Amino acid sequence: MRVVQLATFVAPTSGGLRTALEQWRRGYAAAGHEAVLVAPGPGPRSSVEGWTGPAAGAGEDVGTVVLVPAPRVPGRSGYRLLWRRAPVRRVLEELAPDRLEVSDRSVLRWAGAWAAAAGVPSVVVSHESLDGLAGRRWPGGEDGPAARWRRAAVDRANAATAAAHDRVVATTAFAAAEMERVGARVDRVPLGVDLVTFAAPCAEDRAAARGREGAEGAVRLVHCGRLSPEKEPRRSVEALRVLRSRGVDATLDVLGDGPCRPALERAARDLPVRFHGFVADRGALARRLGAADVALATGPLETFGLAALEALACGTPVVAAGAGALPEVVGDAGVAVDQDGAAFADGVLELLARPPRARRAAARRRAETFGWAASSAGMLAVHEAARSRAG
Asked: How far apart are CA 356 and CA 364, in angstroms?
């Protein structure tokens, strides 16, 4: 079976979505199937290459990637948008997939209709919360005319997405809820974590890592993720400021990049914050996550939260935004809090009150309930069960 993955918000420096697509391709290949990713690229012509990336080891190929020329999204996003249908359609026709896996509910929704016409079963994966994104773009509270209009618009879009594909996949109950609200049947397939790369370091390794950066005695916090408005990374800086105002000797490492970085650097100029940018080396990322005492996961719209799970795998407990899917993923290995800096600071202190060995062991145990092999098998089961409407 040839599975063609189609995604637009994936780039060489993107995080969770790219990792998920790579790990699924590896799982498909291990099960004897062929997998190809079709994604945006710089052009001027479509190109075929093997990417190495976050899911791969040093120099390890993670499968065939077809890059279709696409324009950059304005700003510092680093993304390109597959808005031109003709070149994508030509690539799909050349690849002749047995199954189409679409990881986008905006500019690529048309691909479901293409698949139906071609007799190819299609699966759409719900990686984002349209409810949450619409609420940020068109605020107006949870009730009243604006909220009702917003929900109706989201429901129309989600109903059209579900109707355009044979199966709908969501990674959490939170991600599934808005699709189930319009009557869509949703298959739930959680993501996984690389439990080998992301491993809890021993106490000696943690002490050595902290000593090299002069943070032996400080409470070390880490924020890992894209620095974009919807993920509200400012909450991590606010939490650090609150903790220090309470007399807590704390530092913050920020792992990731994005359009919010300049504003965050200005807000943190009087605080012990280190901005590391996007960390491509997964081993280096794991070492930084494992050296921290607490990870901060501030995104209230996360439909899974892979960075938080990777922190847990490294034995680092998580203070998570109480909204979204993060509480489902983190479970009792962390705490879920309201969306303000003081609440995140309180969450840090709550976790620090737990015995260090117990809180790190609980984090690792929670991560071990998620695996990429099970995630890939879940996706393959959905693909096997899919039947084209035109078949």
From this structure: 13
Q: Percent of the chain beyond pLDDT 90? A: 74
Question: pTM score, two decimals?
Answer: 0.90
Cα separation, 130 vs 68, in Å, equals 26
Can you tell me the distance from the alpha carbon of 96 to that of 391, in angstroms, rounded to the nearest whole number? Answer: 15
CB 37 within 8 A of CB 8: no
- Looking at the structure, do residues 139 and 279 belong to the same domain, yes or no? no
Residue 197 domain-assigned? no
pLDDT by residue (tens digit) across 158-213? 999 999 999 999 999 999 999 999 999 999 999 999 999 999 876 556 666 656 66
The first and second tokens of residue 376, run together, are 């890939």
Neighbour count for residue 86 (Cβ, 10 Å): 7
Residue 63 within a domain = yes
Flag whether pLDDT at 229 surpasses 80. Answer: yes
**CA–CA separation, 356 vs 93, rounded Å?**
55
Does residue 198 sit within a domain?
no
Q: Which domain holds residue 232?
A: 203-367
